[in-house]
Design brief:
The complex is a heterodimer of chains A (358) and B (344).
Chain A lengths: L5 H5 L4 H28 L7 E3 L2 E3 L1 H8 L1 H15 L7 H18 L6 H29 L3 H20 L4 E2 L3 H8 L1 E2 L2 E2 H19 L2 H10 L1 H6 L4 H27 L1 E2 L8 H11 L11 H20 L7 H16 L1 H10 L6 H6 L1
Antiparallel strand pairs in A: 1-2, 3-6, 4-5
Chain B lengths: L3 H9 L6 H4 L3 H29 L6 H10 L1 H15 L7 H17 L4 H25 L4 H19 L4 E2 L3 H8 L1 E4 L3 E4 H19 L1 H11 L1 H6 L4 H27 L1 E2 L7 H11 L11 H21 L5 H25 L1
Antiparallel strand pairs in B: 1-4, 2-3
Helix pairs in contact in B: 3-15, 4-15, 5-10, 5-13, 5-14, 5-15, 6-7, 6-8, 6-13, 7-8, 7-13, 10-11, 11-13, 14-15, 15-16
Classes of the chains: A mainly alpha (358), B mainly alpha (344).
Chain lengths: 358, 344
């Protein structure tokens, strides 16, 4: 339940809106608690965290570490979706970033040095930012619908990643690079710290400055926000660029976790998982109001779900089936029709949810 | 062109119900509606000419006949997808439904059920999943993107539940059906899957252009609120397009099972993207309201030809296929965008 506590403080303005946001988060958090409960019933030691080799160890830590790439991708996706957009290319950007970094390290004369690792990361991140900027250009300047503009890079991106790795699965050994995905700092996985750090930074930037409000304004009504003096084009362009950058970082985390760049499978379906996490978190695909805390819970649900399936001894290949059930349940519970029915019962939140959803 | 807002309005106004502009420029407007499809035809011709000039035997009847044989399932998927996209929706589930249908076919045939029962059953699976998705979109007002995404995960998970490994199909009737072929004009080889695909195209063409249902599909894409105000059966039609797309995916799975003589859970990964790409390259606009089934068929053939060219080239690696398709998508989308801008 602890994950919900920052929600009301991050929620914008009045107490009534705060109630609605808490209402949004109720079902996702309930699903997460249910998942954790199921795990604990099947394996009582599930929630135990012990110290091993000087760092924390246990299933909750596994969840936190495994969710790092998805957390980064879903963060960018939340902002993009808030402006009425969608970014399908994130999986391809994940693959490209991993491919570029590892190919650079593999070809460098000194793969083990920290300088090489940092340069590789830098190149990959700049390229990812450029790809995000390209998406933003297509959407905000050329005026192509986001879904099709990013579909282009989604289709071509894996081909480009294959081109970079020449169709091979590039593997390297570089201790400094491995730290990002598999290292620990202060007892916690570095990947988690990086992902949560970036997440917190964006949360502060959007909720403690006007940025979040501007993003929501663009999502709610682009023309009205433009007339009100909001630089709609710049905002849209920026969120796509950020989505690319975060996906690139996620690609580095993934690649350094396994120390291999697999152009075909790295980040496969991560765009769908990210969109799922955002939707489970209560951000509407129609744009407008977004909930970073909701996305946070959504990502944790998906990461926990994957671990649950493994824990219950079911083949991980069947995971999609459970994802489908969770999505169906959560989206149906959040659907306008169901909310209207719930609202009839709890008269407190009468017609507001519908307004928020549009 | 300045912000996001006019883009949405411009795209909306392209529906067939764009009454205000009709009087102004009727002749060139009709031209314009066919323009994207003409573009697809030009690309198709260009690929054929370039291929014919570069490689011997490229323009042979055998290569062209194989183009239809190897892409029959993609044609069927693209046809189903056209209906959904015309209403302004999208169907991400088709690849997974195709896999589910082919795996189920293989599994049931292996279990000894007669082909006469299995074939209609697996097509029906697609229809049922389409119906569920349509109900989610309609009754619960879930966005099509999310509803079909759930459908995709659902179907893919079921595949692995039924059979994690590849199942060969040995049923005699089914193999005979899959192996049936005939030679048109003595040289053009036509298999049963090509016949099925062409029948699907013909039925879809009739549905879209000669029935009230088809007109309603276009009307919804042009403006859902207006269609509703006109008293058209919007709800029924919007559920039906997902049923059609699901049925096409089920049929596509059958064709894929006939093509590969096996069922495997990992078939059709990302095939929904190929189908969407085929529809877009075929000139259908993703906001709905404008597009043609035959355009989608041409789009599927363009994708198939790119694959063929890359096979003929030999030295080019397979990943170039994706890059070229992405590039082609870009060109088409930007061209459509330019057309939309010039119009406003």
């Amino acid at each position: 339940m602890s994950a919900t506590s920052p929600a009301p403080s991050r929620a914008p303005s009045s107490g009534r809106l705060g109630t609605v946001v808490r209402h949004h988060l109720f079902w996702p958090v309930a699903a997460l608690v249910l998942l954790l409960a199921v795990n604990t019933v099947f394996r009582p030691s599930f929630l135990r965290v012990s110290i091993l080799d000087g760092h924390l160890f246990g299933s909750p830590i596994d969840i936190l570490r495994n969710c790092a790439p998805l957390m980064l991708v879903a963060l960018g996706m939340t902002l993009v979706i808030a402006t009425r957009g969608i970014d399908l290319s994130v999986g391809a950007v994940v693959a490209i970033a991993g491919a570029v970094a590892l190919t650079y390290i593999a070809r460098s004369p000194d793969p083990g040095s920290a300088g090489t690792a940092l340069t590789a990361m830098g190149i990959a991140l700049v390229l990812a930012l450029a790809l995000g900027t390209w998406n933003g250009f297509l959407v905000s300047v050329v005026g192509i619908q986001p879904i099709i503009a990013t579909l282009i890079l989604m289709t071509a991106g894996r081909g480009i990643a294959m081109l970079i790795t020449q169709g091979q699965i590039t593997t390297v050994t570089s201790a400094p690079f491995k730290t990002l995905g598999a290292g620990f700092w202060l007892g916690l996985p570095v990947a988690t710290l990086v992902a949560f750090g970036v997440f917190a930074l964006v949360a502060v930037l959007t909720r403690r400055t006007a940025l979040g409000m501007l993003v929501e304004a663009v999502g709610i009504n682009p023309s009205a926000s433009r007339l009100a003096g909001v630089q709609a084009r710049t905002i849209v362009w920026t969120v796509f660029a950020l989505s690319g950058l975060f996906s690139g970082l996620a690609g580095l985390v993934l690649a350094s976790n396994v120390m291999a760049a697999d152009a075909n499978n790295a980040g496969l379906f991560i765009e769908l998982d990210a969109i799922l996490a955002v939707v489970i978190g209560g951000t509407s695909l129609a744009g407008g109001k977004f909930s970073l805390s909701g996305t946070f819970v959504g990502v944790l649900i998906i990461a926990t779900l994957s671990l649950t399936v493994t824990n219950l001894g079911i083949s991980p290949l069947v995971t999609p089936l459970f994802k489908a059930l969770v999505v169906a349940a959560v989206t149906l519970l959040q659907s306008p029709v169901m909310r209207r029915k719930l609202a009839e019962r709890t008269r407190r939140v009468a017609p507001e949810p519908k307004v928020v959803a549009r | 062109m300045t912000t996001v807002a006019p883009r949405g309005r411009a795209a909306r106004a392209q529906g067939p119900g764009g009454a205000p502009t009709r009087g102004r420029a009727r002749g060139w407007r009709i031209d314009r509606r066919y323009l994207p499809v003409v573009g697809t035809l030009v690309v198709l011709a260009l690929i054929l000419v370039v291929g014919g000039a570069r490689y011997d035997n490229f323009l042979s009847v055998g290569v062209l006949a194989n183009l239809f044989i190897n892409n029959s399932f993609l044609i069927v998927l693209a046809v189903g997808m056209t209906f959904v996209i015309l209403t302004g929706g999208i169907d991400l589930s088709v690849g997974a439904v195709l896999a589910l249908s082919s795996v189920t076919a293989a599994y049931l045939l292996n279990a000894g059920l007669p082909a006469g029962v299995v074939v209609p059953l697996v097509v029906l699976i697609g229809s049922v999943i389409g119906l569920l998705i349509g109900a989610m979109v309609h009754v619960f007002e879930v966005q099509p993107f999310i509803a079909t995404l759930a459908g995709m995960f659902f179907a893919r998970g079921l595949c692995f539940l039924i059979a994690p490994e590849s199942i060969p199909i040995t049923d005699e009737t089914f193999v005979a059906l899959a192996g049936w072929d005939t030679w048109v004009a003595g040289q053009w080889r036509v298999t049963s899957s090509v016949v099925i695909a062409l029948v699907v195209v013909a039925v879809a063409f009739y549905l879209l252009h000669y029935t009230q249902f088809g007109r309603t599909v276009y009307a919804i894409g042009g403006g859902e609120a207006s269609a509703r105000l006109m008293g058209l059966p919007v709800t029924r039609t919007k559920v039906l397009v997902y049923v059609i797309s699901g049925t096409c995916a089920g049929l596509g799975g059958l064709l894929f099972a006939m093509f590969s003589r096996s069922g495997y859970s990992l078939t059709g990964v990302a095939m929904e993207l190929d189908a969407i790409a085929a529809v877009v390259i075929g000139g259908t606009i993703l906001t709905g309201g404008t597009g043609f089934v035959l355009g989608s068929v041409l789009g599927a053939l363009v994708l198939g030809l790119i694959q063929t060219i890359i096979t003929f080239e030999g030295t080019l690696s397979s990943w170039w296929t994706k890059i070229v398709i992405g590039g082609l998508l870009l060109v088409f989308v930007v061209l459509q965008r330019l057309l939309a801008v010039r119009r406003t």
